[in-house]
Design goal:
- By secondary structure, the protein is an alpha+beta fold.
- The chain is 29% helix and 23% strand.
- It has 16 helices and 22 strands.
- It starts with 9 loop residues before the first helix and ends in a 7-residue tail after the last helix.
- The structure holds one RNA strand.
RNA sequence: GGGGACGUAGCUCAAUUGGUUAGUAGCGCUGCCCUGUCACGGCAGAGGUUGCGGGUUCGAGCCCCGUCGUCCCCGCCA
């Protein structure tokens, strides 16, 4: 029991919790000159207070805006008590501000509320940081006091935009005949893919649920059930390390449809993106989006999520160096490797040290080294060009259309690796040289991914997308002999160099699914144990089907211009997957563990 | 798992090469004054375990080791 000293006097308690005479009539974003002369009651938080002694101005804030209210301390005794973040209800007359006193920066700046009655609904200690966008506050403090951080208009704008985006998505799919169907959060662990978050079962001793990494299997089962058009805004969970655009729990726009081909999914999603950009950003985009094969993307841009707002492309110059006196390149070509180049424009500011830093990055990215040449007024500035023949140089100038101020980066290696390294440098340099056309919105589909890749770690093939992705029909004959050459019917959606979604046409044939499991070195007993329900469903009249999942948080981040995914999630986790506000995850009582039949080892 | 940046007042930051008792710092906070401000203004004031632990040194905010936390990147993320 608390002592009497901490008791709140009864009349104050009644003021806070009792019936209220001041019921809100307008929000703090509502009032304009046309309300002048009317009575209004506003509620909100004190944003700033300007005390002039005989007159007190308070900017009252709620999620709709801010309104200046004016208090005469002689009439309103609470005027002097008000502090930032106090919760107020004020009534009075709306009046036009005196001539010349209008505030053009405020939406409600033409008017103010002359307060006749003021109730302090709650008080606040001085907050740990100011609720304003003027100053950067360290993110750990913001996350600790998330309820205050979310009071900032900018954060509220993000969450409002998130809501609007969700509404548009739901409307779009509903209008196209798609049904939103929920799938379980407590499901079975599927060891393929990311690490699972596990949930112990109390009732089934020693057994565990897993939180879904995605509703992949359930949505396929819905197709088998005949719900031929499904979507869901759904939470997914992956226990992997975080990034600026990755959270352990995140939201997907999950979509699946039956009797469709790749192009049907593309058109569906293109339509959605067009509506979203129009409604949210007021931007008209061109559809259909360009389609690039995985190989095209990699060979031209050095990435499977190319940012085509950067004009520089990778060019294969192996042929030029076939007979070059520069042994490093000519021998690489002779040995079946290749020489890849990236021409970079506007490099006037780059000096030797910058290229050396680039070389270090290239080496970190897996290259053996980096060749570079910069065309200056004095000629070729380069540690390697002195080894080039004149024929090499003129062929390069012609092939790459080199001009003064351009630089060329060279990587000689196995083609895919060399391109990937140049792809990394391309992004790095474009950022540094501000060579990204940020006014552009570039969408593209990347298709024809390999179905499998060899995992050196696990010494087996693993799925590039997931094990239910259908092989490309033209490559079925390669499945048995050369699985690494099989392309998949998977696809990614890329927006300005960010992967915002991925999907595939699925396998709907039990025998083919079995064969894929075999290539993945999943025994039929294993497959039966883990995915038996799916295999069984495939036997009972599974329709051809396919779909996509779009990263909702990432999408909202890009639509809102937020620079971190955390800014568009109300209560996000830190890079070490903890919540600084609730301090989750936390230890639990020994009794709880016992009930769950669990013992911890540390 | 690995690499990098950062951690000083409530907040944002400063503090020369390791040198007195940490800085007239900005914002915020407290008190007083002020009837037209809007990032109000004026005067006065309070506020510090330099994340934590250890070491080197005559002397550490600064150097070294460890640790904790935040952020970014690689691995990882079907």
């Amino acid at each position: 029991m608390k002592g009497p000293s901490s008791m709140v006097p009864f009349d104050k308690l009644r003021a806070r919790h009792g019936p209220r005479s001041l019921k809100r009539t307008h929000t703090c974003g509502d009032l304009t000159a046309k309300h002048a002369g009317k009575k209004a009651v506003l509620t909100g938080w004190c944003d700033v207070r300007r005390d002039h002694g005989g007159l007190v101005f308070v900017d009252l804030r709620d999620r709709y805006g801010k309104t200046q209210v004016v208090l005469d301390p002689k009439k309103i005794r609470q005027a002097k008590e008000i502090r930032p973040e106090y919760v107020l209800a004020v009534s009075g007359a709306v009046r036009k501000r005196p001539k010349g006193m209008e505030n053009k920066k405020m939406a409600t700046g033409a008017v103010e509320l002359a307060v006749e009655e003021c109730a302090i609904l709650n008080r606040s200690p001085t907050p740990p940081f100011e609720i304003s966008e003027e100053k950067e506050v360290s993110e750990d403090l913001r996350l600790q006091y998330r309820f205050l951080d979310l009071r900032k208009p900018k954060m509220q704008k993000f969450l409002i935009l998130r809501h609007q985006t969700a509404q548009i998505v739901r409307n779009y799919f509903s209008q196209k005949g798609f049904l939103e169907i929920e799938t379980p959060m407590l499901t079975r662990s599927t060891p393929e893919g990311a690490r699972d978050y596990l949930v112990p079962s109390r009732v089934q001793a020693g057994k565990f649920f897993a939180l879904p990494q995605s509703p992949q299997l359930f949505k396929q089962l819905l197709m088998v059930a005949g719900f031929d058009k499904y979507f869901q805004l759904v939470k997914c969970f992956r226990d992997e390390d975080l990034r600026a655009d990755r959270q352990p729990e995140f939201t997907q726009i999950d979509v699946e449809a039956s009797f469709v081909e790749r192009e049907d999914i593309f058109a569906l999603v293109e339509g959605l993106m067009a509506v979203l950009l129009k409604e949210v950003l007021g931007v008209k985009i061109k559809t259909p989006f360009d389609r690039l094969s995985y190989v095209e993307a990699l060979w031209n841009y050095g990435s499977d999520k190319p940012d085509r707002r950067i004009v520089w492309k990778i060019v294969d110059v192996s042929e030029i160096f076939q007979k070059s006196p520069f042994k490093i390149f000519s021998q690489a070509v002779a040995g079946g490797k290749s020489v890849q180049t990236l021409k970079v424009t506007g490099t006037g500011v780059l000096v030797r040290k910058d290229f050396e830093a680039l070389e270090a990055l290239a080496v970190r990215s897996g290259a053996r080294g980096l060749g570079w040449a910069k065309l200056t007024k004095e000629g070729w500035m380069s540690p390697i060009a002195k080894n080039f023949s004149e024929a090499d140089k003129s062929a390069l100038v012609k092939e790459l259309q080199l001009k003064e101020g351009d630089a060329v980066l060279f990587v000689a290696d196995e083609k895919n690796l060399a391109c990937a390294v140049l792809g990394t440098l391309r992004l790095e340099l474009a950022e540094k040289l501000k060579a990204i056309d940020t006014a552009r919105n570039d969408f593209c589909w990347v298709t024809d991914f390999p179905l499998f890749e060899w995992s050196a770690l696990e010494k087996r093939y693993v799925s590039v997308h997931h094990p239910f992705t259908s092989p490309h029909p033209d490559d079925l004959s390669l499945l048995a002999g050369e699985p690494q050459k099989v392309r998949s019917q998977g696809y990614d959606l890329v927006w300005n160099g960010s992967e915002i979604g991925g999907g595939s046409i699925r396998i709907h044939d039990r025998a083919l699914q079995q064969q894929v499991f075999e290539i993945l070195n999943i025994s039929s007993a294993d497959a039966e144990r883990r995915f038996g329900f799916l295999l069984k469903a495939l036997e009972y009249g599974a329709p051809p089907h396919g779909g996509i999942a779009l990263g909702f948080d990432r999408l909202v981040m890009l639509l809102s211009g937020a620079d971190s995914i955390r800014d568009v999630i109300a209560f996000p986790k830190t890079a070490s997957a903890t919540c600084l506000m609730t301090e989750a995850p936390a230890e639990v009582d020994a009794r709880q563990l016992k009930e769950l039949h669990i013992q911890t080892t540390r």
